[in-house]
Write a structure and sequence with these properties.
Keywords: Signal. This protein has 504 residues and is mostly beta strands. It is built from five helices and 34 strands. 6% of the residues lie in helices and 53% in strands. Strands 21, 22, 23, 24, 25, 26 and 27 form a seven-stranded antiparallel beta sheet that branches. Strands 15-16-17-14-19-20 form a six-stranded antiparallel beta sheet, with no helix packed on it. Strand 6 and strand 7 form a beta hairpin.
Length: 504
């Protein structure tokens, strides 16, 4: 049976190498900044990708990205001129008397026109190019990003490019998250990057281990009921990475074919990168691809599930997961996810990996069971040291059946301040919530737990037995109405407080 018709887009990468790291997120004033990553455009230039979200009602006035003193963003310059939403000034310390943009550092500046005056949770994508020399300079010093709203609110953050957007040296293959080695060919998953336009770029590294040059590569894409327009970086028919291809699309079969135009030497362990764009909702629902390599008379085919790194598909989650994100904080990596609906959902196991391949369970968060409204969850990984960590959710039904969520990568850039008190799930979506105690605080003689409402009334007070590390509290027994509460832990002469949200 043929899958539903899916139209999809190719993205043209004129490069020898690609690299995109996990998202780095920072906030300041009413701005949220994301460094989506970096790709090697060619041996001389690197492409950076940022998004900026306005969290308040005031509209975006400008955004400025730091450049080394005396430098400008690299070619192709026409990319900047094609953006009709912004006036772009390349290599400016200030707006030279026009009083629209004023930065203390040399920058690539985007001055918003009325059509791009985003606010109230809206975000926009900014892409630009740096020479290798300029990229390496900013990787050593950090890269400042400054924004201003229409009412004069200014935000400024510093990104560590080494932590968020490290690019491999020219001529080197990018790191991959996992691979399927079939002897005559090796298929590896590089990454999947989601963009504000609702699309996700998925990239594979393919090694041809035969002695014959690759002649064709086929990728069958996931199902979707929401097709998007076909396009590519070069008139809809060409694709260029290390080697050159023409592309054809079979809409009925959801199949794209990369036909060799010049693949001389693509044999004996040589590699190339193949990238496609699919709707983000389709990718999150069905991250399974069928990839087939042709090299002369040799045919090598495999399924590739980019979530499980196996050759078999998975069924959709019993919950409709609508978001799964992470952010670096002083308390650890904060993970947030939400569901649009849940069926027989016992809960989630939060799993962490250092390489994107081997995962360990670090926490269990109770689910809402059955729900037809949006439910939000949060968990802070207080044990995540500096560096990039990979996370996924293992959703389990009451019957014991389970499925995995998409994998995300989060870079911890801050030193962690360990809390002795944790409260989860938060919001408390089921009948129980858990209070966790760390560092043996319950061994002290005067340890007590209090819950207070926003009017300061104590609605729960309990002495904590020595050695207690976890307390499971029942909402039905506490008889707490929906609202916001403060959970206070008193030990010795110290007090720690956490906010608890009980849905109404």
């Amino acid at each position: 049976m043929k899958r539903h018709i899916l139209l999809f887009a190719l993205i043209l990468f004129s490069l020898h190498n690609l690299r995109a790291q996990g998202t780095c997120i920072q906030t300041d004033a009413c701005f949220e900044y994301k460094l989506l990553g970096a790709t090697r455009f060619n041996d001389e230039t690197v492409k950076l990708m940022y998004t900026v979200k306005i969290l308040c009602g005031n509209k975006l006035d400008y955004i400025a990205f730091e450049l080394p003193e005396g430098s400008k963003a690299a070619t192709p310059a026409n990319v900047l001129q094609q953006n009709n939403d912004y006036v772009v000034r390349n290599g400016k310390t200030s707006n030279q008397g026009q009083n629209q943009i004023d930065t203390e550092f040399n920058a690539l500046q985007f001055n918003a026109k009325n059509t791009a005056a985003i606010n109230n949770g809206q975000e926009d994508l900014f892409e630009f190019y740096l020479t290798n020399e300029d990229y390496n300079t900013l990787a050593a010093t950090g890269m400042r990003v400054q924004t201003k709203t229409s009412n004069g609110t200014i935000g400024q953050v510093m990104f560590d490019l080494n932590a968020c957007a490290t690019v491999p040296a020219p001529g080197q293959d990018p790191n991959t998250r996992c691979e399927l080695d079939l002897g005559e060919a090796t298929f590896s998953f590089i990454d999947a990057i989601s963009f504000p336009d609702g699309n996700t770029t998925v990239r594979f590294l393919v090694k041809n281990n035969t002695a014959t040059d690759l002649t064709q590569l086929l990728i069958e894409t996931p199902n979707t009921s929401a097709p998007i327009a076909v396009s590519s970086g070069n008139n809809g028919s060409a694709y260029k990475a290390k080697y050159n291809y023409s592309t054809t699309i079979d809409q009925d079969a959801n199949l794209i074919t990369f036909n060799s135009q010049n693949t001389k030497g693509y044999a004996n362990g040589r590699t190339d990168i193949f990238a496609i764009i699919v709707p983000t909702t389709a990718y999150e629902t069905d991250p399974f691809f069928q990839i087939t390599l042709f090299a002369g008379n040799t045919v090598v085919s495999t399924g590739f599930n980019t979530q499980t790194c196996k050759d078999t598909p998975i069924n959709p989650l019993a919950v409709e997961l609508i978001s799964f994100e992470g952010i670096s904080t002083k308390s650890g990596i904060e993970l947030n996810w939400s569901t649009a609906s849940e069926t027989d959902n016992a809960g989630f196991e939060v799993e962490r990996s250092q390489d994107g391949k081997s995962f360990d369970k670090i926490e269990t968060v109770a689910g809402a069971g059955n729900s037809t409204v949006k439910v939000s969850y949060t968990f802070t990984d207080a044990t995540a040291g500096k560096g990039t960590h990979y996370y996924r959710l293992k959703q389990t039904d009451h019957s014991g059946a389970f499925e995995y969520s998409s994998l995300i990568a989060v870079t911890q850039t801050q030193s962690i301040t360990t809390d002795n008190l944790s409260v989860y799930p938060n919001p408390a979506t089921g009948n129980y919530f858990t209070v966790g105690l760390k560092n043996n605080v319950a061994s002290q003689s005067t340890t007590a737990l209090q819950i207070m409402d926003t009017n300061g009334h104590v609605v729960y007070n309990q002495q904590v037995a020595s050695g207690t590390q976890q307390m499971d509290l029942s909402l039905s027994e506490l008889k707490l109405p929906g609202g916001i509460y403060l959970v206070k832990l008193h030990y010795g002469s110290q007090t720690e407080t956490k906010k608890l949200i009980i849905p109404r």
